[in-house]
């Protein structure tokens, strides 16, 4: 119907530059294609603007044989027109396995059967071999103008290379029949031969076919990693390929790759391929204890790290395997690696051997027990603690943390209990980096169960400050809001609730107030020996000052109920009262509470800028606070600051707070000029 309208343009492209014919060809609507081609104004070879594909290209790509046939009958259709990526209709048909379309296109005299695309540089043959389209490969190889060994330009891979990696046995055979195909041609990207690709992918049949070729080197390493076909096969667990390669006398089973310096045995051990490990160990020319050159790790070390129990079992049967050999990069033994990574079975096997179960690594100076305790591996900790030659209190050399310290910090209560049952464990030993005791770590991290366990010990000092920040367990718990821990610590008489840290000079009450923990503030204020008005040493702010600044009405109320709290105390950094802080930040509720105290001066200027609470509120635009302050007769609305000499009206006007300007002008004692 639409095509019968004279005002309908049948060749009008859309936002992608596709005409109705392009869409019909793309989606296989043969009848519509015929109707459109009957119209004189329709260009049958019009490419779209997004992909530069013609209707023929779309039809060839999507396998619409009938439409391809119709379009090829038109003289104005170029059957060899490449798109944005340089792929011709033949390239698309070959890539996607459309045999009939490939056959039709090859019958066209002006189609180049060997034209590479411009993105990957792959020819139609290359695409067909990669994707396993045997029929198309056969057709293309029958052409004299097709180069069967043409490498692509992106990876430098030949059709044989693609077919070998993808496991297309039939295509590999077809290609190898051709004399001009080099079966040993490495690609230019990784320097890998077809045999290397086939070995990595586990295509035993193709490996055997390639090994029958006289000019194939079965031990050729690639240039990227320096790995041989055997190395790739061993790492991938391809037993049949490994078996095939090991039958060759010209394959070195102990060869190190150049990137990691690892043998095929090392790769197989790491990845848990016990069948391949057994095969390699049957060879006299394989060193079962050969360390790699990057980390200095033996096959046993890799197996222990990865938790490959069966491989470890096999390797430990060898007398020429050293079960206690540390790597050269971190100085970590197989036992340490297994303990660190939680491989109980491997730890058990290794402990049955005559090794040092307490050997620390060289990087952190951590022993196996320390690692297991840090990572929370209860079973391994239990095994190691059964050994008399394991020191349960041995600190590492980097942080100086004992196993108990690590377990307490990370919240492993079961391990803490086990360690505390040992006589040689000091439950109060601080680390050397932060100077924190196990109790300090547990309190900081919020592990209340561990705190409870440690507080049951008479030899634990619940009040011991760390050496880095001078903070007690109570200080840490109060800062981080751990109510249960604070409660437990406050039940101890020897805990000083007023002990300030050495870095900021803040008491536990100061930390709890600053971080808005009302419940902890309440608990601390219930202690008779708490000083509720102690300022910190960095800013000189009291708990009330912090609460007023941050708008914590509940805490302000609690503090103002105390007779020993000075509501007008100036801090030492800015010389500001709690009222000044509350006024500046617009906390009108707190302003009201403070003004209810007779001992709070509503007009007290700070010492740094000489600005009154009214000045700060006017500057910041807090109308409600200004209104409250102006109701006081003892507030001077015309008081200039000492730094700039500006009155509140001036500050409000400068910052555009018209409402405040109006309120101030209503006072007869304000002189705006």
Description of the molecule:
This protein has 673 residues and is mostly helical. The mean pLDDT is 95. Helix 23 packs parallel to helix 25 (438-445), helix 32 (553-560) runs parallel beside helix 34 and helix 35 (613-620) packs antiparallel against helix 36 (623-630). The termini are far apart. The protein is built from 38 helices and no strands.
Largest sheet: none
Percentage of residues in DSSP E strands = under 5%
Arithmetic mean pLDDT: 95
Q: What structural category arises from helix and sheet content?
A: mainly alpha
List keywords for this structure.
mainly alpha, 38 helices
SSE map:
Elements: H1 20-27, H2 30-37, H3 55-62, H4 65-72, H5 89-96, H6 99-106, H7 124-131, H8 134-141, H9 159-166, H10 169-176, H11 194-201, H12 204-211, H13 229-236, H14 239-246, H15 264-270, H16 274-281, H17 299-306, H18 309-316, H19 334-341, H20 344-351, H21 368-375, H22 378-385, H23 403-410, H24 413-420, H25 438-445, H26 448-455, H27 473-480, H28 483-490, H29 508-514, H30 518-525, H31 543-550, H32 553-560, H33 578-584, H34 588-595, H35 613-620, H36 623-630, H37 648-654, H38 658-665
């Amino acid at each position: 119907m639409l095509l019968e309208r004279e005002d309908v343009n049948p060749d009008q492209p859309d936002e992608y530059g596709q005409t109705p014919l392009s869409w019909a060809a793309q989606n296989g609507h043969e009848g519509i294609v015929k109707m459109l081609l009957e119209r004189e104004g329709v260009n049958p070879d019009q490419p779209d603007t997004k992909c530069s594909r013609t209707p023929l290209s779309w039809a060839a790509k999507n396998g619409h044989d009938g439409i391809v046939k119709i379009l090829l009958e038109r003289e104005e259709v170029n059957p060899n027109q490449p798109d944005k990526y340089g792929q011709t209709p033949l390239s698309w048909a070959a890539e996607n396995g459309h045999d009939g379309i490939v056959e039709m296109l090859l019958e066209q005299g002006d189609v180049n059967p060997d034209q590479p695309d411009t993105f990957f540089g792959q020819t139609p043959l290359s695409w067909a071999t990669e994707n396993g389209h045997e029929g198309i490969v056969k057709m293309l190889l029958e052409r004299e103008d097709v180069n069967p060994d043409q490498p692509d330009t992106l990876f430098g891979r030949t059709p044989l290379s693609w077919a070998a990696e993808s496991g297309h046995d039939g295509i590999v055979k077809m290609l190898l029949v051709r004399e001009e195909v080099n079966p040993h041609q490495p690609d230019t990207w990784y320097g890998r031969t077809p045999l290397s690709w086939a070995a990595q992918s586990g295509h035993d049949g193709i490996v055997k076919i390639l090994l029958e070729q006289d000019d194939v080197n079965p031990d050729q390493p690639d240039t990227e990693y320096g790995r041989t076909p055997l190395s790739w096969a061993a790492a991938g667990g391809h037993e049949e390929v490994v078996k095939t390669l090991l039958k060759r006398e010209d394959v070195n089973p102990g060869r190190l790759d150049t990137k990691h310096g690892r043998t095929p045995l090392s790769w197989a051990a790491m990845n848990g391929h016990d069948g391949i490990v057994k095969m390699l160990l049957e060879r006299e020319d394989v060193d079962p204890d050969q360390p790699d050159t990057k980390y200095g790790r033996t096959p046993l070390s890799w197996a222990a790290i990865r938790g490959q129990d069966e491989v470890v079992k096999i390797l430990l049967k060898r007398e020429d395997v050293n079960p206690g050999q540390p790597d050269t990069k971190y100085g970590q033994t197989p036992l340490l690696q297994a303990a660190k990574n939680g491989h109980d079975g491997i730890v058990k096997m290794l402990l049955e051997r005559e090794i040092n179960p307490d050997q620390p690594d060289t990087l952190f100076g951590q022993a196996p027990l320390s690692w297991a305790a840090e990572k929370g591996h209860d079973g391994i900790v239990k095994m190691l603690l059964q050994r008399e030659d394991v020191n349960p209190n041995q600190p590492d050399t980097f942080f100086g943390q004992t196993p108990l310290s690590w377990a307490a910090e990370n919240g492993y209560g079961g391990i803490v209990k086990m360690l505390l049952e040992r006589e040689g464990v000091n439950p109060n030993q601080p680390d050397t980096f932060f100077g924190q005791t196990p109790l300090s770590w547990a309190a900081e991290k919020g592990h209340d169960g561990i705190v409870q366990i440690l507080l049951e010990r008479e030899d634990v000092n619940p009040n011991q400050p760390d050496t880095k920040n001078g903070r007690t367990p109570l200080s840490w718990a109060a800062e981080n809001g751990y109510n249960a821990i604070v409660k437990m610590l406050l039940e101890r008489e020897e805990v000083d609730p007023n002990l300030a840290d050495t870095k900021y000079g803040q008491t536990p009450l100061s930390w709890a107030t600053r971080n808005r923990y009302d419940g902890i503030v309440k608990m601390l204020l219930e202690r008779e020996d708490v000083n509720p008005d102690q300022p910190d040493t960095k800013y000189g702010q009291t708990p009330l000052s912090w609460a007023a600044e941050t708008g914590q009405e509940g805490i302000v109320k609690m503090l103002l109920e105390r007779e020993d709290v000075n509501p007008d105390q100036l801090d030492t950094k800015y010389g500001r009262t709690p009222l000044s802080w509350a006024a500046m930040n617009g906390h009108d509720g707190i302003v009201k509470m403070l003004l209810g105290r007779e001992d709070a001066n509503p007009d007290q200027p700070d010492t740094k800028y000489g600005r009154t609470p009214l000045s700060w509120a006017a500057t910041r635009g807090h109308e409600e606070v200004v209104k409250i302050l102006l109701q006081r007769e003892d507030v001077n609305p015309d008081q200039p600051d000492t730094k700039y000499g500006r009155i509140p009206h001036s500050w409000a006007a400068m910052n555009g707070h018209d409402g405040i300007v109006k309120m101030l002008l209503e006072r007869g004692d304000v002189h705006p000029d």
